[in-house]
Every structure is written in structure tokens, then in C-alpha cells.
Amino acid sequence: xxxxxxxxxxxxxxxxxxxxxxxxxxxxxxxxxxxxxxxxxxxxxxxxxxxxxxxxxxxxxxxxxxxxxxxxxxxxxxxxxxxxxxxxxxxxxxxxxxxxxxxxxxxxxxxxxxxxxxxx
Length: 120
What we know:
Elements: H1 14-21, H2 24-35, E1 41-42, H3 43-53, H4 58-75, E2 79-82, E3 87-90, H5 94-105
Antiparallel strand pairs: 1-3, 2-3
Helix pairs in contact: 1-5, 2-3, 3-4
């Protein structure tokens, strides 16, 4: 078994974590999932949260979550996404949580309106 899966801090490099956090939707997703880490979150609840905190319409959110954000976060091992059950679970990652907290303490709550949404 790969030892990096045993240690959450070794799953992603710092550069990879910054890349994941560069998108405001992913910051919102991760912040929400960290606060609900005790159980899987229904995709619908995540969509509703993002609708309340971003200016992106529902249909676009659902498409981007399913095809971009959740697969990318799952590929980096910070979430588990069961698309058939439409459940998302956060996978503990202390370095990621520290970076999210640092962003929040600097006044970045992820609610700013981006002029150009990136596809990264």
C-alpha cells in the first residue's frame, strides 16, 4: 500500500493544494465539507450552499461540480465523490485546512465575484 494514503499531509504537494484552492468554488466546497466532515454530504445540499454564496446559476453549478470540481478534488484525494449516490465526503487533510483557515483570516471568504471563471 502507498504510504502517502496513510498520511493525509503527503497526498498533495503545497503547489497542488494552492492549485486546488485557486478556484473560489472549490474554496467554498472545501470549507463547507470541512464543517460537515462527520458525515457524507448530499450533492443537493452542496449545490444549495453554493447557490447561496456564489453568483453562479444552479444548472452551471451542477455541471461544473459533477464534471470539474468534484472529480478534481477526488483525484487529489481531498474528497470522496460517489456520483451514483450523489454523496460527497471530505477526507481529512490538515495542511489543506490550515490553508483554508489562513485564507479566511486574511479576509478571503471566497465570496468575491470573479471577473473570469477559470476552468482549472
